[in-house]
Amino acid sequence: MTSAVDLFEAELRLCGVHEGETVAVLSQTERQRAYARDFLAAAQRLGALSYEVGLPADNEAGGLDYVGVNPLAGNQAAIEALKQADLMVDLVFLLFSVEQQEIQESGTRILLCIESLDVLGRLLPTPELRERVECAAEVYEAAEVLRFTNAHGTDVTYQLGAYPVMTEYGYTDEPGRWDHWPSGFLFSGGRDDGVDGRVVIAPGDIVYPFNRYVQSPVELTVESGRIVDIRGGLDADLMADYMAGFDDEKAYGISHIGWGLNERCRWSALATDPQSIGMEGRAFYGNVLFSTGPNQELGGSNDTACHFDIPMRNCTLYLDDEPIVVDGDVVPEEMRPRSSF
Amino acid sequence: MTSAVDLFEAELRLCGVHEGETVAVLSQTERQRAYARDFLAAAQRLGALSYEVGLPADNEAGGLDYVGVNPLAGNQAAIEALKQADLMVDLVFLLFSVEQQEIQESGTRILLCIESLDVLGRLLPTPELRERVECAAEVYEAAEVLRFTNAHGTDVTYQLGAYPVMTEYGYTDEPGRWDHWPSGFLFSGGRDDGVDGRVVIAPGDIVYPFNRYVQSPVELTVESGRIVDIRGGLDADLMADYMAGFDDEKAYGISHIGWGLNERCRWSALATDPQSIGMEGRAFYGNVLFSTGPNQELGGSNDTACHFDIPMRNCTLYLDDEPIVVDGDVVPEEMRPRSSF
Amino acid sequence: MTSAVDLFEAELRLCGVHEGETVAVLSQTERQRAYARDFLAAAQRLGALSYEVGLPADNEAGGLDYVGVNPLAGNQAAIEALKQADLMVDLVFLLFSVEQQEIQESGTRILLCIESLDVLGRLLPTPELRERVECAAEVYEAAEVLRFTNAHGTDVTYQLGAYPVMTEYGYTDEPGRWDHWPSGFLFSGGRDDGVDGRVVIAPGDIVYPFNRYVQSPVELTVESGRIVDIRGGLDADLMADYMAGFDDEKAYGISHIGWGLNERCRWSALATDPQSIGMEGRAFYGNVLFSTGPNQELGGSNDTACHFDIPMRNCTLYLDDEPIVVDGDVVPEEMRPRSSF
Amino acid sequence: MTSAVDLFEAELRLCGVHEGETVAVLSQTERQRAYARDFLAAAQRLGALSYEVGLPADNEAGGLDYVGVNPLAGNQAAIEALKQADLMVDLVFLLFSVEQQEIQESGTRILLCIESLDVLGRLLPTPELRERVECAAEVYEAAEVLRFTNAHGTDVTYQLGAYPVMTEYGYTDEPGRWDHWPSGFLFSGGRDDGVDGRVVIAPGDIVYPFNRYVQSPVELTVESGRIVDIRGGLDADLMADYMAGFDDEKAYGISHIGWGLNERCRWSALATDPQSIGMEGRAFYGNVLFSTGPNQELGGSNDTACHFDIPMRNCTLYLDDEPIVVDGDVVPEEMRPRSSF
Amino acid sequence: MTSAVDLFEAELRLCGVHEGETVAVLSQTERQRAYARDFLAAAQRLGALSYEVGLPADNEAGGLDYVGVNPLAGNQAAIEALKQADLMVDLVFLLFSVEQQEIQESGTRILLCIESLDVLGRLLPTPELRERVECAAEVYEAAEVLRFTNAHGTDVTYQLGAYPVMTEYGYTDEPGRWDHWPSGFLFSGGRDDGVDGRVVIAPGDIVYPFNRYVQSPVELTVESGRIVDIRGGLDADLMADYMAGFDDEKAYGISHIGWGLNERCRWSALATDPQSIGMEGRAFYGNVLFSTGPNQELGGSNDTACHFDIPMRNCTLYLDDEPIVVDGDVVPEEMRPRSSF
Amino acid sequence: MTSAVDLFEAELRLCGVHEGETVAVLSQTERQRAYARDFLAAAQRLGALSYEVGLPADNEAGGLDYVGVNPLAGNQAAIEALKQADLMVDLVFLLFSVEQQEIQESGTRILLCIESLDVLGRLLPTPELRERVECAAEVYEAAEVLRFTNAHGTDVTYQLGAYPVMTEYGYTDEPGRWDHWPSGFLFSGGRDDGVDGRVVIAPGDIVYPFNRYVQSPVELTVESGRIVDIRGGLDADLMADYMAGFDDEKAYGISHIGWGLNERCRWSALATDPQSIGMEGRAFYGNVLFSTGPNQELGGSNDTACHFDIPMRNCTLYLDDEPIVVDGDVVPEEMRPRSSF
Questions:
Q1: CA torsion A220→A221→A223→A225, rounded to 10°?
Q2: Which residue, among E1, E152, E273, would best test binding to F if mutated, counting the most F CBs under 10 Å from its CB?
């Protein structure tokens, strides 16, 4: 049996935390403070120093559905306070913000941690997973074109090269690197005007943040990196209404593209845990993770608050015509789990 | 950034709370008590006096799904305690009860507040919204017949005149008036035997309290103000089984009818916040809000505990043959938002 | 009005707790401890002695989705501590474990209680319900073959006799007997290799632990007590993916079979309370409860952690060709509620 | 064993609370709210209706050391809210205020309850105690002069008649009557200018709110109802400095005078429970309770916030020359406990 | 830095807890439950199994001032539940009860732990302390007469032999042995009628449970094991009144006698921490700990609830005329700290 | 009425916090976190940015009785995190540490705040108090010798000049300046070897951290800045034993010397609030505050953890033979309150 402190200790150990390092934990709500207390204790067990930076509570900033806004904005002293640490555990969700970038650039590595203890414990990362994700990144970085298709009519092409390849394997031991516990996938983006084709989201594909399995196909027409048409039934209507609500042209941009490699994650997990943040759905083995909206984390300029992450099943993905995923299964041996599962 | 107290202060200001007034807050559960504490503090900031009236906790009375029953029933001294205030904030949900009516009749205005801070903050009301809702009410009050249709076969007629028109714009500064934060719609009812026709709930329409988008059409036949037939697939079965569970003929009565005017509310909000109370879904701009069951809040005699609120999309609604909503869009200029959105 | 202590007192009274008896309450999480405190108080009111046995918190053992594993495993002293009591209230969920069996064998009766206060209060059991469930059990015990069908193509046969018939009516006053508050059904199992045919889960049938109404038919082919084929759309995919995730041949075994008799439970309850444990859905009157996976509670050897409970509507169930349930209605007079409802 | 709810139920029963009555509970701090919750539950057990009136928290009003100020001041609606009840349980301490008087005058009886559960349970009142206190009050009411002495030089005379005799026996079942749980004594006051003599507080006498046994004699010279001189060592200095701190001539007035009759209270209790409110010290059998400062509770006009209660040991008290207490023992048979203790 | 779990782990390690053992923790109040949670976690770190036994809360049993009564009385099943463990941590304070004796006799060792974390951490025991206490016990066991004196007139003699010598060094690793964390002293008792002389408690000596430094001498005359006279000033009065309050002849019996050996404990600690339980005052190096009242822990028959522990300074204690403590300093080399302090 | 946030807002306003500044709050325990939350809210009201720095909880560092040790020691990143702010509110008590000095030297001003809300509210500082304290500091800075006496035999001389004069008036608006809310006094120190004479602590003088009025005179002989002899009764013994417990020669050094100027503070406050930190006792008008032990806050090298603060009554204090305080009353007009009190 394992307590929360035990679990966080295991994770910090993966993050390379050791005696003499300092861990800062960023929190805001009471629930986050409970996690923070246990992360401080876990750091102490490893001989590391630690402190929490707590932000004033409010009801406007930084809900999970509204990416791009964050409660650190403008609070330069708090940002400096976080840059003092070797590792910062982000319980608040700074994702995609310039504030997070500034902290990373100071050399502080950042671990995002917002899932439930149950999910964190079940999906504690491993070095083996990291190795496979990094192998995949090497292949991805060498490619110039990504294309993916599915049996429902998807056929879309991304011109690569403008943006780096990002890995997420669930921990971080390199200065300035960000990761999210749990994960197990990688992604990059097409050139801003270099994505064209059709994406047909099929029944069973998941739309985040709706945390919903699509019931009927949704057909997106993509031209020069923008969604220009959305067709389908109720699911299409929901996506269109949600996007319209932001009143922001950038909501229709295409964001990152990649695939999942974590064989311990299940596509069906959403059915038993509909309120999770959904990292399990984003990372399940063989999914193609198609995303819309902001691309700041890649270094891009789209900073819209409207973001969809859509893990798609049974797709085929090519890098420079080399098949990487075929009908939802991963092809290259070095990206596959070491043992059958 | 805004704290809960800041938010409640802004709302109480809209409610006209000022130095020398007294605000009472009605609570029952621990969660409600946290809100109550912050409302008391907000009242103090405005120079108003305040007190909380806490009811004994129990597990029988007043869940949100069971309208018409409330924990004040029979507790005359507590009712009197609430009548002492100029404004009562209802955190418990007294809606549709004779107890609430008695408090209103004493001149105490009542603000219902049961949504999450996130929803409350996002949908803080404005005087501009109030103005448009009141304009709409004037038009509604002058009408004798309401009829609404949709492309799925809805065509139903309400004989008006028996009941008043009620507005909900999210705050209340008139003695004895009740409102619900947030909202943004209006409604009245047909004569008790004066509703006839067919209502076809279409895919995507929302059924509360199921907090569910209908997947397949549900056809209701309405005769003389009563539902006499329910047809369709799974959604129809769910509605029929739910209604049958109350073992109450009054469950099949037709309740209030009206339309939404709040352009900041989104139909798709239920997809990202499935556990909210659903005011956003009831108030979104251009929906026709069709309801069944109790009509006490209109002064009617139907006091069944079985209540459906069904915001319907893309309907056309006529008052005395004048189109007010056409295919889900509001026609009269004075009911439309001042600026494009 | 009724407090939690009042409610628990009523339940313990049904369980025959009286002066001189001792009640132990098993807990692990903080939420369970609140229930425990109130159960201790309720026992005191009945003149009974009481104590709580609290297990160390952790994030690995005994989530509701993973049956068969439990936090008592290996903790023999804690097991002995529980065997000292006349009645043990299980707030943790030991279901299907050898540890629970050992406690029952010592003569301690066990009441499982994990639903919300709202559900517990609404569905407090009655002796009348018990009587009807026991009548049904007598009939079931005498039968050699069970067969059930539905209009979607289900036709499956269970060879009975290998396993006992178990009743669940919501309380327990017999030494060593286990029950679950609330319930209201009965079940047994076919011989390990004695179940054959086809089960077609129809739209509207519920799949637990997905807490989901099936949207499209799922066809299961059963041979010699094992599922050998799963066909259908999204729902079938979800079930197949979930089962595959356990990487366990025993996940495909057929488990218990029975029918519901509680007329106060509604099939539609899941629509208004999607996060309940689902006893209302399992016990509604006239459902056939089809289950897969572990059968330890019947004394069988299948101990897989993968378990589906699937209450099916509108089925017809025969015992030795005698119709017991016909199109979702219960036939034998002695199993029907005393008064119309 | 007895829970807090059991204890409060016993007390409310003594207060004559019954089905059909309403109990209001006045609270302000979180600690008081825990008591309030249990009083509401206790009232429910007796079939009474109940509600809590919670006041906004603040850090200025109504600490126990500053009598006469209270958080109800100016909050007329809250006062009216409390007047609706048959019994009000005061957890906040309104003692000596005009607000309390107004509530009493409406017929609402008031029970003050601010001690710890331990003290409340140990000193739950009895009808036998009430009877003896009421016997004593009859004798007291008939007297014209009170004089008390002790071996350290005390000899002081009170001209009676201007003020009523008040009883405190720990519960209240008469309309408009106030009492304090626990207690067990009675008191009246001398005429405003009708107290003269010398009071010598002896080592071992208790000074509240110092919660301190006097170490060295303190000699007070009293002329025409005012303290005109204070002599002695450290204890005298402390009293003089404390009184000077109020900068209020009325601080030097003489307040109520009476004697204790509760044989279950111990003089030495302060030694083991130095932080209690001190009702045990005020009520112990045979003490003469000498007080200074405000006399509003008697109907007088002294409303100073500076109040000393000084239970004195081994005194002799005469009413019209009739010895009532002699050397700390009570003389009249009807005031003595029924059985030896 | 050290967390509560770290501290408890260190203590359990001293208690010899190891993989395969089971630790039970007895609790009752919420505050105790916080300790319990951390003890369970500490046990897990050592590979031990663990569980908590929680008793129903009440307001009557087992306050610290009322020894001899405990909430386990009559609850045989709970007693059995505790006997299952190898070590029981007692957070409730069972001291002197037959229930505790029964648990010890089953072989379960018991650690009492009721001080604050601050005291526990500061006075974590050591094997060195144990060794010295055990050396002292050997000497004590061999003696037939104990006599102690002080400069204020104390001269009292205990006839030894009737009772065993008990050690308290703050942890326990022997089956069935009880200890109290922290401590550091030893004691035995005189024969029931074998204590005679005079004890003069001097200014500065501490009287527990008054948690008070005596201000003026208290002279106790002891005849045949009973206090027959108490003389002195305020302190004597307090002791006499307290004892009289129990209305129990056994309150006047002489209980255990011994001396303190813990050089890390300070006599002056009570001045800075007046609300501690007082183990520091009982264990300080060179004090003679004189006690009255119950002697059940020695196996005697005095079970009064009235208990004084009185650590006396500057005494001289002889065993068979051999000086062990002289003027508050310990003489035998083997009982003195290894290094100067 | 005033909430905690109101109170903190008033204090931060005195501290000159304004829009664009940043306030950091240092906390460690749960109780401190409640204060921290309210300070963050108060800062927001003033338009300032804010964040909390939370340290890991432990049971070793920084209790109030052990000055000189603090939980920031060695945690350089946390120190840097605090240096980012314009004002740091210290809820933990860093007093006398090099860590605090480093933070001050960065320009961050520090406000210590550890008293109860009741004390904080009653003794909210004023600019008038600040002015008088600063006037006094000017006089003090100009002096070369300080001598103070009392009627009990005190006559001691401090050679000034080695250390600065420090003011404490309860708020801080100058970069790098530290203050403590509440206060109202000033102090400096004699040269390390430049204090000689006799200090006789008189009955009624207060010894912190004993929080105790001295009962009998304590005579300290001071030679060359060190206490070389302690005589007297119980109080002297307590001081001597406490000092010996630190096993540290520096415990006997003489620390700061000064006088109190806050006329709203009462010497008798300790009698009604024995558990306060004691700022009221340290600051009362006309006391001479004599201290022993560490002098780091003056820039000295004595860093012992043994510290006494001893406010003495009725003393006479001279600066270069000019009487500043005479028999406990302040002489110079500019140090006296503006109006009589």
A1: 10
A2: E1
